[in-house]
Amino acid sequence: MAPRLCSISAAARRLLGGPRPGAGDIAAAARFYSKDNEGSWFRSLFVHKVDPRKDAHSTLLSKKETSNLYKIQFHNVKPECLDAYNSLTEAVLPKLHLDEDYPCSLVGNWNTWYGEQDQAVHLWRFSGGYPALMDCMNKLKSNKEYLEFRKERSQMLLSRRNQMLLEFSFWNEPQPRAGPNIYELRTYKLKPGTMIEWGNNWARAIKYRQENQEAVGGFFSQIGELYVVHHLWAYKDLQSREETRNAAWRKRGWDENVYYTVPLVRHMESRIMIPLKISPLQ
């Protein structure tokens, strides 16, 4: 049987022909405290408590000095259309990123390498929070090129979903970086009511994962599926990832963070991703 090809309409060819702007683990949690950590077995008998709060998670956990809002998009692409999807995306999205009239910017764009296959992941930043988001959405409604892009893109997709996110106050703000790198998006679905406890533990633990500048950004969901955390990491390659993660286990305190946070998780998954050409995170 001849392989299926993703056909590209004349509209898509016009878009592509235009100028382009320039551009751990749950298993590890089974480890107990280090042998030289006296009294650890005794402390494990007690549940780690957090004082009850009356404020919203967004107030307690997010950065106060910025009003950035993030949107993460997951697009499941028809396998025969992935190359055409990437080309179409690379032709159109940078125009929004560079247009000062739109209060949005690309943070990163990837294809999943290991994890869910034939998937594209896009991370956007809206400087100015929800008003910036609504301003951008309203302007896109009258952007004929973008509407044409969305119509063409819809023919290439099997499904799509998104979430609105805030960034944790104790994580780095994602900044463009040179490559080549691979990126790991680790997603944790927490038990309801545990977000503050998660934040308290990771605020202390993030220092153990900064030496190789692998920490890119940490986010928690505000709209979409709730009690979801995304941690974004950068590594030179898979071997570098393994060595960096193993090194964290040799630091006193990292095992304690894992011990206390694993019980908060009801599901977790990892994606290894490769940046698209247009991604500021290379």
TrEMBL record:
GO terms for cellular component: mitochondrial matrix. InterPro entries: Dimeric_a/b-barrel, NIPSNAP, NipSnap_domain. Keywords: Autophagy, Mitochondrion, Transit peptide. It comes from the Eukaryota. The keyword Mitochondrion applies. Residues 183-280 form the NIPSNAP domain. One of its GO terms (biological process) is mitophagy. It is found in: Mitochondrion matrix. Belongs to the NipSnap family. This is Protein NipSnap homolog 1 isoform X1.
